[in-house]
Amino acid sequence: MTSTTPQSSPASSTPSPTRPGWLSKQLILAIGAVLIIIFSLAPVMWELLTSIKTNEAITSDPLVYFPSWSQYTLQHYWELLVQNRFYIYIFNSALVAVTSTVLCLCIGSPAAYALTRLHLPGERIILGVVLVVTLFPYILLFLGLLEIVRAVGLANNYLALIIPYTAINLPLTILVMRSFFQQMPRDLEDSAKIDGYSTLGMLVKIILPLTLPALVTTGILAFIFAWNEYIFALTFITRESMKTIPVAAAQLAGTTLFDIPYGPLAAATIIGTLPLILLVLFFQRKIVQGLTAGSVKG
Amino acid sequence: MSNVAVKNLNKTYTAKVVPVRDTSLRVEEGEFLTLVGPSGCGKSTTLRIIAGLEQPTRGQVLINDKDVTALRPGDRNIAMVFQSYALYPHMNVYENMASGLKLKGMGDVEIRDRIKDANDVLGLDDLLDRKPANLSGGQRQRVALGRALVRRPDVFLLDEPLSNLDALLREQVRADLKQIFERQSAPVIYVTHDQTEAMTLSTKVAVLHKGDVQQLDSPERIYTRPANKFVASFIGSPQMNLLTLPCEGNQAVLGSSRITLPDRFVPPPEVVLGVRPEHIRIASPGDQPLVKGTVFLVENLGMSYLVSVHVDGSEDTTLRVLLPSDQTWDQQITLTMSPEKLHWFNVQTEERLPDHGA
């Protein structure tokens, strides 16, 4: 019902490309877009430039915004990876984030599916509790968790991070996945049953491929949380070799108390952010693809 | 020879929600049974129970005289077409049609043969590697049908398969459906709320209402001999005129006219007269009985006019009459109807009054 109105006077309803108003409109739009991009990405750009500037360029006065050819260096990265052995922390972060994300999806999706399809008694109460948990500021859990970690003896163990990260991300996963399952046409599952799929076969062959976009979306959210988390990682892990990127980056120190290692810090930030950006860029296609695929009805 | 039957089927959710009360049906080889009724009459629930997607509270489902009530849907050798088609969106047309066969462990060669056979009927050859998202509604519908046909099931179940098509396409696909299912012999159970589909496609029609089968008969008999007031009002378009009339002796009083009751039953004090709009015509000299009235509404249906008339002497009573479009009439109109086209129903039970001597 959208495009049925006849264009009686094209000159007045749609601006033709030749009219002067159109050009200035496009121009303003373009300038606005550029300004917004600069506003959002300038800090990132600054961080990136700092990470590849020589120390002299970083500390010089007046400020060097765009270094000249001689002022570029990869020294900070070299320092970070070779001297500080930063790859250990990258590995730790990746291990903790990937494991907790996978766990989260593996536990959360079946839970969400059950909450959608089984019509459990007390379903609404369970969902209410799940929702309340997401509203709970996780910092408040911190002291209690610290006691638990100590009591169970999990300190300096990857599990001390994996378990809380999984738990904190579970409610969100359950809610997102549930709303996705609810949108999935019931007929599709019925059809699969009649085709002879077992429950497991149906889940793996029919539901899972269709749920992929939702899994990716929630997975990315869970991963970002676990990758960036600082407080738990700072408190539960004290052994140097088990620290994660945020903690390790914060603890980068110069040779003296007053020497702030801007270069390595910037490099650490870039290294810490890069995987997230790559992850999102890589899966973005998948997300959009999945969300737009029409499956039923004509 | 395949057949399918349900015996004393009941589905109770709560004391008040009983979509299926006590249904027994049997469909033989070559038969096409349509379950028709308004929404909430239990037709879809019945079908889903036969498919095994729901468990009945009581009763049995029999396929080829074997009790399959406890079997899973996949083990019943049935095929079902859904209103939404329910094609797997991530599989192309070929995979959609093949998936059920693969699960049965059928070889690739035979799967290919079966899909080819189905395509001879459906004409899907050019679409085999397309995803459902790239098909039109009509094409999706055919793929859904193809997926059912390749299974060569003991029974076909169709749940409002035409409801998502636009009106023009629906008529065409309806005709296609009729041809496709006439060519094969497995029993078909078809659910619809559309009486035209029920009348055109079926060899047998079951009219359902409030969880009960109101009438199970051939389409012709459903139309000519509706078993009760509900069936009479539900089947037929435009709807049958149903008038509650007092009786004087063996005559029913309609405004200033008298309509003689047939002598096969004892005249009750009140009676429901049913007469279809297409069975009323403008009276010619010598016709009996005569009903005089005033025209207050004329609707043009193209091939005929639907004329609404207030009956003289009983202004609240409205008769709706189908008149051929080449006929003219005055505001004051005199109508007649043939006695053999009249239906009489009991006022209290709403059942049809006996057709033969009481």
Q: Could you give a short description of this structure?
A:
Helix content of chain A is 72%, strand content 0%.
Describe this structure in words.
The complex is a heterodimer of chains A (298) and B (358). By secondary structure, chain A is mainly α. Chain A is 72% helix and 0% strand. Chain A is globular, with a radius of gyration of 26 Å. Chain B has eight helices and 20 strands. A six-stranded mixed sheet of chain B has the order 6-7-8-3-9-10, with helices on both faces. In chain B, a hairpin with a 3-residue loop joins β16 and β17. The two termini of chain B are 41 Å apart. The model of chain B has no long low-confidence stretch (mean pLDDT 91). The chains are: A mainly alpha (298), B alpha+beta (358).
Keywords, separated by commas or semicolons:
heterodimer, A: 298 residues, mainly alpha, globular, B: 358 residues, alpha+beta, 8 helices, 33% strand, elongated
What is the rounded Rg of chain A?
26 Å
How large, in whole angstroms, is the Cα Rg of chain B?
24 Å
* Residue share in β-strands of chain A: under 5%
Q: Any low-confidence stretches of chain A, pLDDT <50, length ≥5? A: 1-13, 292-298
Unreliable stretches of chain B (pLDDT < 50, length at least 5) are none
Spatial ordering of strands, largest sheet of chain B: 6-7-8-3-9-10
Largest pleated sheet of chain B:
6 strands, mixed
Largest sheet of chain A: none
**Largest inter-chain contact set:** A-B, 22 and 34 residues
- DSSP E strands of chain A, number: 0
Count of runs of 4 or more consecutive helical residues of chain B: 8
Tell me the distance between the termini of chain B.
41 Å
What is the beta-strand fraction of chain B?
A: 25-35%
Overall spatial form of chain A: globular
The whole-number mean of residue pLDDT values of chain A reads 83
The helix-strand sequence of chain A is HHHHHHHHHHHHH
Number of E strands of chain B: 20
Structural class of chain B: alpha+beta
